[in-house]
Amino acid sequence: MVDHHSHGHRHHVQLKKGVNMIHVDEENGCVSIRRSRPKLLFFLTFCSLLSCCLLLVPSFFSFPTSTFSLIYSYEGEDETLLNSKVPLCASVSNGTICCDRSSIRSDICIMKGDIRTNSSSFSVFLYTDHVSSDLVTRKQEKIKPYTRKWEPSTMATIDELTLISENTNASTIENRHNCDVNHNVPAVFFSTGGFTGNVYHEFNDGLIPLYITSQKYNKKVVFVILEYHDWWVMKYGDVVSRLSDYEPIDFNGDNRTHCFSEAIVGLRIHDELAINSTLMEDNKTIEDFHDVLDKAYWPRIQGIKQEEPMEAVDPEKPKLVIISRNGSRAVTNQELLVKMAEKIGFSVEVLWPDKTTELPKIYRSLNSSDVMIGVHGAAMTHFLFMKPGSVFIQVVPLGTTWAAETYYGAPAKKLGLRYIGYEILPQESSLYEEYDHNDVVLTDPDSVNDRGWEFTKKIYLDRQRVKLNLARFRKHLVRSHLYVMAKKNQSQTRAQT
Ligand SMILES: *[C@@H]1O[C@H](CO)[C@@H](O)[C@H](O)[C@H]1NC(C)=O
Ligand SMILES: *[C@@H]1O[C@H](CO)[C@@H](O)[C@H](O)[C@H]1NC(C)=O
Ligand SMILES: *[C@@H]1O[C@H](CO)[C@@H](O)[C@H](O)[C@H]1NC(C)=O
Ligand SMILES: *[C@@H]1O[C@H](CO)[C@@H](O)[C@H](O)[C@H]1NC(C)=O
Ligand SMILES: *[C@@H]1O[C@H](CO)[C@@H](O)[C@H](O)[C@H]1NC(C)=O
Ligand SMILES: *[C@@H]1O[C@H](CO)[C@@H](O)[C@H](O)[C@H]1NC(C)=O
Ligand SMILES: *[C@@H]1O[C@H](CO)[C@@H](O)[C@H](O)[C@H]1NC(C)=O
Ligand SMILES: *[C@@H]1O[C@H](CO)[C@@H](O)[C@H](O)[C@H]1NC(C)=O
Ligand SMILES: *[C@@H]1O[C@H](CO)[C@@H](O)[C@H](O)[C@H]1NC(C)=O
Question: Where does this protein reside within or beyond the cell (predicted)?
Fold first, then answer.
């Protein structure tokens, strides 16, 4: 596993360029986005996964960060260009390869027929036997099966597969290589190469797209993993085994010829940590993905319950979980926050997740909680472990408003959470002590973000801590407590009648 300790929670940020007006309603603490144009047009500057690139590709060290940045325009909520539910390449006839390259986030190719892998040449063959002599006998497609197509710095680290369609006839048929392993279910090829131990990327780039692409096979599917990492299979094996009945294949490490009659190369992805049910064949939603996690973690949680019984908590009290951080973006008065929350009537659990924390443990804590609080960062991905209907309060440090809403706020609402984006005031930021009070760093973070990713990262992400104004924060907690109590009341009333 790549050592990602100091980068684990570091998160890429896409900078907005003044198109969206983010409107914060102080009264109910909800963030809503006003669109100043009917069609969203984001100009995004990227340097995501910078830390991992540095680790994976040492030569990148010598590049200034700006060379990673790509400016592109992004039209529409979703990159799937079709309005119809039926994606391109939905019906592929036998003996053909169809590639859908219409999405800005990922390419996907579908092959049907006599499919044989050749890992030593990074290729997958499709043998056809059209008896037409004037047919082009060899066609090929190249694809990197990873979901950050728009991010060259990441894609540069991903292995490329060549898909070769080869016409064979009676005289050339013996050139086909022999099958070592015959599979009677389809294959889904994808890469775990871009991952770095960052839980946001693991779910956003990997697991959710894997679910989107493979769930329709009802576990009758084999995963063929490029850049296979043992740590990934260890960490996500319980989820993977809810999606496939078969052992995943390590493509690079297994030089046997695997034969299939259908293969999907690459993963479909819809949006940040989301599933657009209108694009799913059987209307699956992010809640269905949540159910997969629940089933995946259930067995391990039974074991954990034996090992570490949870402290007895008052079952009458709503439970609040604080996902805490050390160092940058830590809450410096967290102990007072805990005391205040307990006074309001919550039972409070504080978690310090890091890349080595077993996910079922975090799932267990969040699955039994009513409210989750955390400061913007990759660990907010754990909102996916919350039960729909519960409350998620994201503390939004200066300069992270757009990212907090895009990556976690909006997706959390899609899961059915009650979401509160708590945007801190300059006085609640450690930067208030460091900068002149009229400095744009405090007064106009958007303009600082517009200067480039390096500024966002250096100023707002890497060295900003939060000292909550507890009086201001309190009303959100009180409201959340009322909401949870009312909900509990309701379900009790329903249970009694
Ligand atoms: C889901 O996809 C459809 C079809 O592309 C699109 O019209 C719709 O806006 C998408 N919904 C969301 C919430 O992104
Ligand atoms: C698809 O084509 C392969 C060889 O090209 C052939 O062996 C197989 O029977 C075909 N399958 C179907 C369903 O037609
Ligand atoms: C598979 O790849 C190896 C290495 O490039 C090559 O020698 C071999 O001919 C390939 N097999 C086929 C059937 O193309
Ligand atoms: C078979 O294919 C090879 C090349 O792919 C071609 O040269 C040859 O003429 C073909 N033979 C027949 C009988 O079509
Ligand atoms: C496959 O790998 C094994 C062990 O790494 C090696 O012994 C064998 O010769 C390889 N086979 C081919 C066809 O390259
Ligand atoms: C999916 O939703 C559509 C429209 O709401 C409905 O017509 C269809 O029957 C649903 N499909 C499934 C498998 O539930
Ligand atoms: C999560 O909580 C629900 C009840 O609220 C329970 O039915 C479910 O089994 C729990 N999931 C796990 C994995 O423990
Ligand atoms: C963060 O600090 C707390 C309190 O000092 C400690 O218990 C925890 O292990 C630390 N967590 C990490 C991930 O360093
Ligand atoms: C819950 O219900 C009880 C009576 O059933 C009521 O007295 C109480 O005010 C309710 N609490 C909330 C938060 O709705």
Answer: Golgi apparatus membrane
Mutate to test the pocket of ligand 7, among 293, 294, 305 (most ligand atoms within 8 A of CB): 294
The CA-to-CA distance between both ends of the chain, in Å, stands at 53
Q: Which of 169, 67, 70, 159 lies closest to 122 in space, CA to CA?
A: 159
This prediction has a pTM of 0.83
Distance CA 375, CA 323 (A): 8
Q: Where are the domains of the chain?
A: 5-75, 96-269, 308-496
Residues whose CB falls within 8 Å of the CB of residue 63, separated by 6 or more in sequence, listed in order: none
Name the nearest CA neighbour of 202 among 436, 404, 9. 9
Per-residue pLDDT at 26: 26
As a whole number of angstroms, the distance between CA 33 and CA 419 comes to: 14
Q: Which amino acid is at 241?
A: S
Could you tell me how many residues make up the chain? 497
pLDDT at 131: 57
Kindly state the greatest CA–CA separation across the chain: 83
C-alpha 385/C-alpha 50 separation (Å) is 27
d(CA 456, CA 159): 30
Mean local confidence (pLDDT), 92-111? 94
Per-residue confidence at 84, pLDDT binned at 50, 70, 90? very low
Report which secondary-structure segment, H or E, holds 432.
Answer: helix 431-434
Distance CA 84, CA 409 (A): 27
Ligand 2 contact via 113 beta carbon (within 6 Å): yes
Q: Residue 461: is it exposed, middle or buried by C-beta count within 10 angstroms (0-12/13-18/19+)?
A: buried
Determine the distance separating the centroid of ligand 5 and the alpha carbon of 255, expressed in angstroms.
Answer: 6
Ligand 8: centre distance to CA 85 (Å): 47
Distance CA 344, CA 89 (A): 55
Of 51 and 372, the one with more pLDDT: 372
- What distances in angstroms separate CA 289 from CA 33, 56, 205, 212, 351, one per listed residue? 26, 30, 14, 9, 23
Beta bridge partners of 466: 331, 429
CA 475 to mean position of chain CA atoms: 31
Closest residue by Cα to atom 11, ligand 9, is 486
**199: pLDDT strictly greater than 50:** yes
Cα distance between residue 269 and residue 348, in whole Å: 36
Query: Given ligand 3 and candidates 121, 123, 168, which is best to mutate, with the most ligand atoms within 8 Å of its CB?
Result: 121
CA separation, residue 420 to residues 307, 447, 462 (Å): 34, 24, 23
Class of domain 308-496: alpha beta
- Phi, psi of 83, rounded to the nearest 5 degrees: -85, -15
Instruction: Report the DSSP beta bridge partners of residue 43.
Output: 73
Q: Any idea of the CA torsion for 119, 123, 128, 129, to the nearest 10 degrees?
A: -70
Burial (Cβ within 10 Å: 0-12, 13-18, ≥19) of residue 135: exposed
